[in-house]
């Protein structure tokens, strides 16, 4: 098969993990935290069954290997997700058990950034396209590694 007729595909894989957390910013007073986060600021925290879906891509697409027929070995991807997501987050109190969240509010947005950063350390460069974290069926965060420049 010539490079012009190579088949392209994106690969997606999901994992589900359970964690608890308390939405609370050290930069705000207790009263302001309660106003901002409401019942999610409960001092004893609350839990979620999160679902993290990854979309793997290289530049725009990954080329399907003509020998293996895969864009990436799913066994390898499963191991990366185990190390980057399940081990640090599953059945954990995000605020107390995950050092990253000691100074970062454990919002779903920041959970998505945490997952992205952990996966970037394990995956080949440029392969991760987006991380999608479902806190609930109604609350979903998509993160593609974007950063803003603060001047």
UniProtKB/TrEMBL annotation:
<keyword id="KW-0862">Zinc</keyword>
<comment type="function">
    <text>Involved in the biosynthesis of tetrahydrobiopterin, an essential cofactor of aromatic amino acid hydroxylases. Catalyzes the transformation of 7,8-dihydroneopterin triphosphate into 6-pyruvoyl tetrahydropterin.</text>
</comment>
<dbReference type="InterPro" id="IPR022469">
    <property type="entry name" value="PTPS_His_AS"/>
</dbReference>
<dbReference type="InterPro" id="IPR007115">
    <property type="entry name" value="6-PTP_synth/QueD"/>
</dbReference>
<dbReference type="GO" id="GO:0003874">
    <property type="term" value="F:6-pyruvoyltetrahydropterin synthase activity"/>
</dbReference>
<comment type="pathway">
    <text>Cofactor biosynthesis; tetrahydrobiopterin biosynthesis; tetrahydrobiopterin from 7,8-dihydroneopterin triphosphate: step 1/3.</text>
</comment>
<comment type="similarity">
    <text>Belongs to the PTPS family.</text>
</comment>
<keyword id="KW-0456">Lyase</keyword>
<dbReference type="GO" id="GO:0006729">
    <property type="term" value="P:tetrahydrobiopterin biosynthetic process"/>
</dbReference>
<dbReference type="InterPro" id="IPR022470">
    <property type="entry name" value="PTPS_Cys_AS"/>
</dbReference>
<keyword id="KW-0479">Metal-binding</keyword>
<protein>
    <recommendedName>
        <fullName>6-pyruvoyl tetrahydrobiopterin synthase</fullName>
        <ecNumber>4.2.3.12</ecNumber>
    </recommendedName>
</protein>
<dbReference type="InterPro" id="IPR038418">
    <property type="entry name" value="6-PTP_synth/QueD_sf"/>
</dbReference>
<dbReference type="GO" id="GO:0005739">
    <property type="term" value="C:mitochondrion"/>
</dbReference>
<keyword id="KW-0783">Tetrahydrobiopterin biosynthesis</keyword>
<dbReference type="Pfam" id="PF01242">
    <property type="entry name" value="PTPS"/>
</dbReference>
<dbReference type="GO" id="GO:0046872">
    <property type="term" value="F:metal ion binding"/>
</dbReference>
